[in-house]
Predict the structure.
Amino acid sequence: MQSTTLRFETQPNFFITADGWGSPASPPVLLLHGGGQTRHSWGDTARFLAQNGWYAIAYDARGHGDSDWDEEANYLADALVGDLRAIVAQLNTKPALIGASMGGITSLILEGESPQPLASAVVLVDIAPKPEQKGIERIFAFMSSHLESGFASLEEAAAAVAAYLPHRTQPTDLSRLEKNLRFRHGRYYWHWDPTMLKMWKNTTPDQQIRHEERLYRAHAHRARRHQRRGE
């Protein structure tokens, strides 16, 4: 099964790149990756969903992969949610949302803050309204490593990922990893806007608390709405 490349204009002259798997006539499911990843991290999942009757759309968040990078480095939650809302509006029916980490936060805020349901379902992967601070610090440390220097080879990049995720079997085929990197000046670099990480790392404790409170409110609102509907 082959995917089709899609482009969504989420604001004037700002485009999000996606892969569509399966028939566009099937119920849609949007796959949202985590920070520092790309749509290709959902390749196997998207293919499996398409084979089981879904139209699976995996997209690169702004500043990631082949999607546009924001000139003003706006990678806060509201911008990510705005992109998702614009993509949902361009579909023919309510999609299911499957979001990992950053993608899960984006999905929860969109659905939990919308007056009316915009999604048929929300699935959160590796995220909760109050994330573990040590986990956040570990992610930032990994994203910061090799940020400026890059990697001399795909094998070197694979070794860095293996050290970060020692419980995973290191793949022998590095073609998917290559899609998460960009090659320039003879070296491989992560395929996301470096200013994004700098912005995230400058988040103050007060801002983090307000963000967590927002996620709790979004979760509670969605739960109450489902109770009223008898779900």
Summary: Residues 96 and 121 are 5 Å apart (CA to CA). The two ends are 35 Å apart (CA to CA). The chain has eight helices and eight strands. Helices lie at 43-51, 77-89, 102-113, 133-144, 154-164, 175-179, 194-201, 205-228.
